Amino acid sequence: MQPVILRTQRLELSAPAASDIDEIFAACQDADIQRYTTVPSPYLREDAEGFIEKTARWWDEGAEATWVMRHADGLAGVVGLHRLGNANGAGEIGYWVAPGFRGRRLLTEACRTVIDWGFSPDGLGLARIEWRAVVGNVPSARTARTLGFRYEGLLRGALPHSSSGARNDGWIAGLLATDDRSRQPWPVLGD
Fold first, then answer.
1. Which residue in 13, 53, 104, 142 has its CB near the most CB atoms, within 10 A?
2. Count of CA atoms in the C-beta half-sphere (13 A) of 90
3. SS3 136
């Protein structure tokens, strides 16, 4: 699969490139990114270099579609559709936002565009997109809820951390191509 460029009102979403290494490395020093995502901890410059190589391979293999969120002020974050290429027409969305870009609603904007492309017959034509996060990652859960994902439950010990080897409990939610995408109540968020 060839990388696809997506655009929103404030962002360009494009494949990570070697020119992004320094900004990815800097963003991934953030304690929350290291705690709640699968990035290595500690995060080294070599990890950012390897990420660029891996994302190019994933695009080529059709296994994952990963974009850098490019804003006029710099690299705002990363969003991707993972676990692609299976026969069941499903994928999983994942994302992180650089600390200086949080609170601007850029992630919601980017995710809506990625979800639209994922469900579109001109994109991946998926039937379902899942979201998973380590229990306690409330900002990620709020974003998923805003995007219309339906909370589906708790996955015990399902999310391994890449560096520590620890297994975390996870929340899971799903969104179907046929869902209306209105904000849903989530019991773990108190509504």
1. 13
2. 10
3. coil
